[in-house]
Design brief:
- By secondary structure, the protein is mainly alpha-helical.
- It has one domain.
- Strands 1-2 form a two-stranded antiparallel sheet.
- Helix 5 runs parallel beside helix 12.
Amino acid sequence: MSPTEKGLFIIYENIKDKIQKLKLVLGEENKHDEYFNTLPKNEISLLIQSQNPNLVLYNSLLPFLVSLIEYLLSNTFEIMLKYDVLAYDELSKENLKIPIEDVMKISNGELTLTQIITKNYNFQNLEVSNKVYKKHLKIDLFKTISIKKKVNKKVIFLKDELSSIISRRHLMIHEFAFDYDYNKEKFMFSLNVVELFLEVFISEIEKYSTTA
C-alpha cells in the first residue's frame, strides 16, 4: 500500500468500526421503543410518543454523525494534501498567515504545515468542504455526493440528506431544538446515510489517488 492508501484505509476502518458498534448497541430491543412503537398512528399517540425518553438519545447522537462526516472530510483532506505532490506544491504559491505559536510548533515537529492548513477549515460545512477540495485537490465534492441512492428501501439524494443531518445537529447544539419525531427508525436511516457517504466518498478518493 502507498502512504495515501494506508491513510485512507485507517480512516475507513475507524469510521466503519464506530458505525458497526453503534448499530450493535441500538439493534438491541429497548422497552421504551417497544412500547411507543405499538401505539396507533394518530394525534394523541404522537403526543404520547414525544415523551419517549429515547428521543433525547437519538437527537443527542446527531453530533456523533456530524463528527463522522467531519472526521472523514478533514482527515482525508490532510492525507491527500500531504502526499499529493501537485497539491503540496500549490501551497508554496499562497500567502499563508500562520500564528507565531504554530510556526514554533512546526519548528519543534509538533505540527505539520498540512495539519495547520486543515485545521483552518470547517469541515462540518459542506459548502466550505467543497471549495477546499476543489481549490487544493481539484476534487468536486458536490459532484461526488450529488447522486441518487437507495437507503432503507427509500431513494434519496445523498447531498440533501447529508445537509439535513448537519442542519439538525446545528439546531440541536445552538438552539437546543429537539425533533420529537426523530425516533430510532429515523436515526438509523441517518446513520445509514452517513455510512453510504463513507463508501461513496472513499471510492471516489481512491480513484483520484490512483490517477494523481
